[in-house]
């Protein structure tokens, strides 16, 4: 089964990567713990946009707040 990872999974991959895993592993471990979702075109787009947004937020310089 093709899945797109929502979080980093030790020994499997990082968030946003598409992996092929056994059906049982996906259904019994990854899906219940919200670590992955089925790799449909729509889901891949959604996850890709979320990861891109997180990277952009991390890259923004944090300025000092004025009182």
Write up what this structure looks like.
The chain has 2 helices and 3 strands; from the N terminus they run ββαβα. It has a single domain, classed as Ribosomal Protein L9, domain 1. The mean pLDDT is 89. It is elongated and about 55 Å long. It is of the alpha+beta class. It has a 3-stranded antiparallel sheet, covered by helices on one side. The longest helix has 19 residues, at 41-59. Helix content is 40%, strand content 15%.
Attribute tags:
elongated, 2 helices, 67 residues, Ribosomal Protein L9, domain 1
Strand order in the sheet with the most strands: 2-1-3
- What is the percent of helical residues? 40-55%
Biggest β-sheet, characterized? 3 strands, antiparallel
Query: How many E-type strands?
Result: 3
CA radius of gyration is: 15 Å
Which regions have little confidence, pLDDT < 50, spanning 5+ residues?
none
Mean pLDDT: 89
Shape call: elongated
First and last CA, distance: 54 Å
Strand content: 5-15%
Order of helices and strands: EEHEH
CATH hierarchy: architecture: 3-Layer(aba) Sandwich
CATH H-level superfamily title:
Ribosomal protein L9, N-terminal domain
CATH class: Alpha Beta
Q: Report the structural category.
A: alpha+beta
CATH topology: Ribosomal Protein L9, domain 1
Number of helical elements: 2
Number of domains: 1
């Amino acid at each position: 089964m093709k899945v797109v990872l929502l979080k980093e999974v030790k020994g499997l991959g990082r968030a946003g990567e598409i992996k092929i895993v056994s059906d049982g592993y996906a259904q019994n471990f990854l899906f219940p713990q919200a670590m992955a979702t089925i790799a449909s075109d729509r889901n891949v787009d959604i996850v890709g946009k979320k990861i891109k947004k997180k990277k952009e937020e991390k890259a923004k310089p944090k300025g000092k707040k004025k009182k």
